[in-house]
Amino acid sequence: MQPASESPAALTPPAPTPPDLRVPALRLRGLAKRFGQTPAVDHLDLDVPRGSFYGFVGPNGAGKTTTLSMATGLMRPDAGTAEVGGIDVWAQPREAKQTMGVLADGVMLFNKLTGAQLVTYAGLLRGMDRDTVASRTEDLLRVLGLEDARGKLVQDYSAGMTKKIALASAMVHAPELLVLDEPFEAVDPVSARTIRGLLESYVASGGTVILSSHVMDLVQRMCSHVGIIAEGRLLASGTLDEVRGGSDLESRFVDLVGLEAGDQELAWLQL
Ligand SMILES: Nc1ncnc2c1ncn2[C@@H]1O[C@H](COP(=O)(O)OP(=O)(O)OP(=O)(O)O)[C@@H](O)[C@H]1O
């Protein structure tokens, strides 16, 4: 008789535990950051449901990048907690970071690597095997239109190409959660459409996306949920329909944030 440990059943890896859908993909509580006297993020609470496509919007300087940096382990908060799928980002950074892919705004990439090397490096860093990394890197370069630039140093990439290679590096390990700070900034319309398609099918397969953007029309077309932030505080959060409340997102944004409607003139610019 075979010992139990050698039976085929014992050699089959245990099925992964399905994620508890009641646990939010991202949960922030009392998150705060101050630069000098100015609070950039002011004790912010936020729940991002699993499987949602969450748009995080706000005016310039509202605290979006600071919030997302603290939520993903890139910037230590002054106070508060951030949990990803129930894992505390700051108490268990290694476990939390395994479950997410992050496209950060303004963070230096290893730009002396070529595009292909950068994505490969990101995959290997995540503990993936070389063959899988190689085939996924090729897929990502092809889909994002970077095949011809695969051997070029990232320092010589244009702004849009840099954004796309950073996005590829964030996605290569197929994480449960993607946190993307301004993923469409500087990206051409054809690539933007491709990225949208990739993200939509990723969410349809059970992934969660959180993205920040200034483009209300895009957020309105893509996102199932929206949060509006201003002066470090969350002014509204919920499903797209709850937040826009029968209006369009841009009008709701302007109402909540209290911006002037852009009808001011500069007398000296009237030629
Ligand atoms: N490293 C820093 N040092 C000092 N102040 C900072 C720093 N980073 C951000 N801030 C300030 O914190 C506030 C929030 O900035 P943040 O970059 O989070 O806003 P944002 O919503 O991402 O803006 P944008 O839409 O313009 O990218 C701003 O007042 C900004 O000047």
Automatic annotation (TrEMBL):
Disordered, as annotated region: 1-22
Gene Ontology CC: one annotated term: plasma membrane
InterPro entries xrefs: AAA+_ATPase, ABC_transporter-like_ATP-bd, ABC_transporter_ATP-binding, P-loop_NTPase
Superkingdom per UniProt: Bacteria
Keywords, ordered alphabetically: Antibiotic resistance, ATP-binding, Nucleotide-binding, Transport
A single BP term in Gene Ontology: response to antibiotic
A Pfam family: ABC_tran
Keyword Transport recorded: yes
Extent of Low complexity compositional bias: 1-10
Residue ranges occupied by any ABC transporter domain in the UniProt entry: 26-256
Biased composition regions of type Pro residues, renumbered to the chain: 11-21
Membrane topology per record: Peripheral membrane protein
GO molecular function, one term: ATP binding
Subcellular location(s) of the protein: Cell membrane
PANTHER family referenced in this protein's UniProt entry, alphabetically: ABC TRANSPORTER ATP-BINDING PROTEIN, DOXORUBICIN RESISTANCE ATP-BINDING PROTEIN DRRA
Protein name from the UniProt record: ABC-2 type transport system ATP-binding protein
Species for this entry: Nesterenkonia aurantiaca
